[in-house]
Amino acid sequence: MKIFNKENGLEKVYVQYSDLLLLYNLNTIIPDTIYDKVYSDNFKVDDSNRFDFVEFNRKEEIDFFKNIDWILDYNSLNRKTPYELNRYYVNSINDISDYIHSTEYINNDDFNYQYDILNHKALSIKDFYFTKFGSLEMTFPQVPNYDKVIIDDTVNTGQIITEGFIPNTIVIYKANGDSFVGSDNVYTKLINTAIEMKTKKDPDYYKDAFNYTSHFSLSDDCKFLIVKYRNRKYLSNDDLLLKKKKYKVKSIIKKFINKVNNKL
User: Fold this and answer.
1) Can you tell me the distance from the alpha carbon of 216 to that of 179, in angstroms, rounded to the nearest whole number?
2) What is the mean pLDDT of residues 130-147?
3) What pTM does this model have?
């Protein structure tokens, strides 16, 4: 997953290690600045860091990731309703199945390249779904989504509230860019208004996916107050799949292996 954001007039992109790993394994031509920053002799991606994000801010780096279509865009995913994400996942599984059953060259590099991308896409959709609506945890950038301002109260309180990149959060920050200190006021009424404005935009069926509470935390640099305003349900894998039909990657891979064996 990739997240594009503009911070203090500077455009940035955050990319997950899992995407960077596949980018490397596909032998893609990568800009030198990205290669030097990420890939080294001890480059390793496992369960401890595969969801972590790496920040890039050079124009050539940002342009490069804009052109990598198979890395899913956060804003595009986050706009989708639970049903739309569900449908998107099912369609991605169908894409894998269609590709396996239509291709004539199942042993060449082109097949493996496309299959890896399709499989990665499906897993990325699934991971995001369970991050937003289930129990999966990702370490998102602790910064405001500056394109999603909910309340600009610079004149009265000197504070601005935006959506957060962490699912189900809002972010409060000072318009002058200063850090929060112990003597600063937290304007509860302003925060509650922002949460109300945000939740009113949600479709009705969001109500069944969450328990509404509030949890406050500060970003590591103390510049952003992050308010998580609802807890997710602990969903199972079956909750992601439409009830009419179950789609499982393992069964598709099994069919693929059988097809390969029949060709030999």
Assistant:
1) 16
2) 88
3) 0.82
